[in-house]
Amino acid sequence: MTQPPPYGQAPQDTQPPPASRPRTTLAVAMEQSRYRLMVTAAVVTAVFSAISVKLVAATVFVPAGEPRQHHALEVDGTTTNRADILDRNGNLLATSLVTQSLYADPKLVSRPEEAARKLVSALPELDYKDVYAKLSGDKRFVWLKRNLSPKQQYAVHRLGIPGVSFEREERRFFPAGNLTSHVVGFTGVDNNGLSGLEQSFNKRLTEDPATPLQLSIDLRLQHVLKKELAATVQEFSAIGAAGIIFDVRSGEVMAMTSLPDFDPQDPTGLDPDTLFNRATLGVYEMGSTFKIFNSALAFESGKIKVSDYFDAIHPIKIGRFTINEYHGLGRALTVAEVFQHSSNLGSVRMVQQVGIPAQKAFMAKMGFTRPTALELPENGWPLVPNPWREVNSMTISFGHGISVSPMHTVTAAASVINGGVMHQPTLIKRAPGAEVPGEQVVSRQTSEMMRRMFRFVVTEGTGKSAGVKGYVVGGKTGTADKQKGRHYQKNSRMSSFLGAFPMNDPRYIVYVLVDEPKATAKTYGYATGGWVAAPAVGRIIKQVGPLLNVPIQDEASPEILNATFLNAAGSTNWVAPPHPPATATTAKGSTVASFPPPAKQQR
Fold first, then answer.
1. Where in 326-443 does DSSP place strands (E)?
2. What is the CATH number of domain 85-215?
3. Positions of the region Disordered (predicted)?
4. 429-458: average pLDDT
5. Which tens digits make up the pLDDT trace of 528-541?
6. Where are the domains of the chain?
7. Which CATH superfamily includes the segment(s) 226-588?
């Protein structure tokens, strides 16, 4: 029997320890899995802890406020390389948009015939033979189509043709279309200006693309002007027309139209007549509107007064030429009547008294011997006689023998009525309050008298149909037979009217010129300026007056009459009619209106 060990001592094991056994594969796999789970749990715990901390910080510790705006990264910038063109009120006249153009590297096109067929199916406007020739050629770069629309680009992209790619380009768009075609002009396929302001300001538009070019043109006035010109051309079966609305105080061209016009988006292949700007490039014999300058010359010379009489009865013969009246009155006329009835004989005798040197110098001062300063490449050179002989002096006095553009005529006429200051015409909007450069070309006394002459033509002369109640309109008619070869054609003429308003304080000129109008029954067989152009000017003034904020005035008020009155005798002194006695009765007059013969009133 075994004795227990003494107290405090461990029992002695009499058996030998078992031998050590090796670890199994399952045990090792279990241990590794347990380790990986612990690491994964630790990572997940750390991630969610961080998210919890951010949420608490964002919702508890950050003060409330508007969310910040985030902008998407620009994959392809849309900044264009050509500046916009705006009208004076900020309306868009021309802008550039980013487009894609289609090109190919023929060396990379494995099957030109199949590729050409696919491209023509996607772009039917392409010619198969032309495309195939390009794709099978030896060049490394050929254009297939410029400025694709997004829909066209998508259709080609879907074809997946190797060697066919797209190139970023720009295309010019003209939101106003034909309305401003002769002013704005157009660009070529490479976006360079080819006419109008697009051409003359090409460098400015490309060097400063971020700053729009703002014009003096008012799109609202432009619409009215074109509408009335188109109606006049249609009514009188004319071949074309030109119109200008001009600020006489600043020289700004508020509207300018030439008909026929064109689509600046696609000007190729058009009749050259549609691209021709009659308002600035065309130079014409202006007819009786030139009597404006002949009269101003007479007053400036100091030799002639408005009340002086001139023979308007006897024809004037010089060489093989004879100068007659269109419709003479058979008596001597005052200077006021010469202007009122548009007398050729009176005009010739006035310039004879002034002299050729003075006439030549005056016409040069009015700008009729050089192009205007207007910012257009289409700027016509006047046709001036050389040498300036006596017969030229005579015919120039009534608007023949010298050819100028409508813009020449309007600019010079503005200086005659605005106080005598010549402001060069501009299509660029002047900054508010900016000083307007100008040159004194006639005296204020001459200018004041010419205002009265203008008003007299509309109240008592050939321009009655241009009158618009409340706007104190004045002006001058003009009719000139067109010269074809060495002769004038009697049934081929330029009919015009130069109107201005209000004549007590001139603000604007409205000018209309109609090329080869045909007489109608409504005009009693006449197609002169008084019958054709003057009514159009009246309709235009009636519509643009409110747009220009020109106030309506009482034309019979003493203030207006004192500023504009002129009678046939040349008197400028308006006297208020005496009030009839209270007991007086007004005599009953005829109910039949009495009118002078139409031809005498509408020259």
1. 333-334, 421-422, 439-440
2. 3.90.1310.10
3. 1-22, 577-603
4. 95
5. 999 999 999 999 99
6. 85-215, 226-588
7. DD-peptidase/beta-lactamase superfamily (3.40.710.10)
